Amino acid sequence: MDRAAFRWEFKTVDKNELTPSDLPGGKVVVYSGLLALTKPRQDWPVVIGHEVAHALARHGAGSA
After folding, report:
1. Could you tell me the end-to-end alpha-carbon distance of the chain, in angstroms, rounded to an integer?
2. Which of 14, 23, 33, 51 could form an SS bridge with 27, CB 3.0 to 4.6 Å?
């Protein structure tokens, strides 16, 4: 998928999980368990940026 074609979506799921995830096409999910342990202004940009980098590198798309 061309990076310009990504349709970014960011969702929060109310679940006691710590590991965020990304899906092909620019979908990023962060669980409430992680949000409860982090500071919004300091940590959230790092978490979201990390997941965006995975999506751009197509790590969730499997092997080509």
Report:
1. 11
2. 23
